[in-house]
Amino acid sequence: MKRFDLHLLAPAKINLILRVISRREDGYHELETWMTKVDLYDSIFVRLEDKHGIRLRCAGSAVPLDESNLLWRAAALFLENSSRAAGKGMSLYLEKNIPVAAGLGGGSSDAGTLLRGLNVLWGNEFDDNTLIEFCQSLGADVPFFTIEAKSVLATGIGERMIPVAAPANCLYLLVNPGIAVSTAEIFAKFALTRKEKNSTLTGSQKLDSDGLRLEDLENDLEDVTIKLFPIIADVKNHLQRLDADFVLMSGSGPTVFGVYTNISENRKRMVTQAAIELRRRFGDKVYITE
To answer: Which one of the listed residues 13, 37, 96, 236 is annotated catalytic?
Structure first.
């Protein structure tokens, strides 16, 4: 059997800040979000084929295996745009570890990571700006995973990104209560209190290590999702009782993360014990990441 040509690790992300600024005429929303990648990964294996077509397999997960899957669509998009990959097809095997519809960007990461990996494989045919431009059709979070930066401030619909420092010396305890949330549904139910917000993340604020702080954590979508899924509030309360320094829902939910700062060996043990307790209450989709 032919060996795979690529093995890629697609990281999850969390939104440390997510602000919805306004709704655009095309139906998308203008956002400001501070995103950072964490070390919870899907694995993608790629085998190039000498004939047209894309084949996708994924064991142990109910993700679609056709053109409705973002990973499949990313492969098709690259093959359509690349002159160096002309005439090629590919077989994809996905090991799904990031929960689906969880606010962690799993599908977007699969797509963006594949695009970046294929681009490197074919000698960086496209620069970052070109990759970002033609992958926007796949989703707002996809561009973040096509670039190397670990942490960014993203504006627009997610396509304008400035690399920023990721929080240092902390652990994130992610808790997914095992329900799936539709991002489209949450945005549809989200009602802006004002047509526009006064941004404090862009413009005059310096985007350096002093510019973005964990104390500023917020998510405009959190209240909407909690009203639909009250278990999210329960998760938040548990993390707060387990001494997380900061607690927030990621993306449109339902995953909630607790931030533990000033990590020492004692703090690591405390986070491990907290994870054990949370798994008893909410199931096995509890992850210690950094």
So the answer is: 13
- Which uninterrupted H or E stretch holds 54? strand 54-58
Residue count (the chain): 290
pTM of the model: 0.91
Q: In whole angstroms, how far apart are CA 37 and each of 85, 109, 198, 244, 283?
A: 29, 10, 27, 19, 23
pLDDT one-digit tens code per residue, 170-188: 999 999 999 999 988 898 8
Inter-CA distances, 269 with 240, 245, 265, Å: 17, 15, 6
Catalytic residue among 37, 42, 110, 141: 141
Which helix (H) or strand (E) segment holds residue 271: the answer is helix 265-282
Where are the alpha helices (H) located in 62-212, listed in sequence order?
Answer: 70-81, 106-121, 128-135, 142-146, 183-189
13 is catalytic: yes
State the pairing for strand pair 160-163/151-156.
Answer: antiparallel
Burial code (b: 16+ CB inside 10 Å, e: under 16) for 228-254 equals ebeebbbbbebbeebebebbbbbbbbb
Q: What is the mean pLDDT of residues 96-123?
A: 96
What are the Cα distances from residue 152, in Å, to 109, 129, 166, 285? 14, 15, 8, 26
**Residue-wise pLDDT tens digits, 139-168:** 889 999 999 999 999 998 778 999 999 999
Place of tokens 């969390």: 14
Active site residue 216: no
